[in-house]
Each structure stands twice: as C-alpha cells, then as structure tokens.
Amino acid sequence: MTRSHYRFVAMTVDMDPSQPPPLTRAVCRTCGDRSPEVDPAHDLDAQCAQAQRWCSAHTARDHPGGRHFDYTATITWHWTVTPEEDIGPPA
Question: pTM surpassing 0.90?
Fold first, then answer.
C-alpha cells in the first residue's frame, strides 16, 4: 500500500475573460425553432427578456392555433478556475 499526501488549495471560479460574454437562447420544445442570436453587449437580464419576448411572439404570432407553450432556455457561461496559490506543474 502506498501513501499519498494531499493538500487543500482554495480555488476561485469566475468568468473567463478570454471567452465571449454569457449568451441566452430559447428553443421551442414543440417544433425546435430557436430564438435569434442576442446582442452579447446586453446584460444577462436584457438577454433573458429578449428570449422571453421571442417565446411569447413564437406562441402568439407564429403558431396562434398551435400548442407551442413549452420552451427550454439555455445560458452559456464560460468559466475558469484559478487556484489561489501555486499547485505545481500542469498534469
């Protein structure tokens, strides 16, 4: 039996600045139509509001006699984990 030594290191999870900002999309679960691309310059609340408006319009205008009431919302975040101290060479 071998013995291992473990050391606990605090980590920080945060947005990855080298990646695009969060993006919000909605998909109709009835037909698969997707909301349009949002402006990544808008904050997350504005993106969600835009996707929700698309869901309402898709139900009322695009399918007024249909049953397009179910949607999936996806928010894509790009995160990075940073150790708060040196943990040695990459694996």
Answer: no
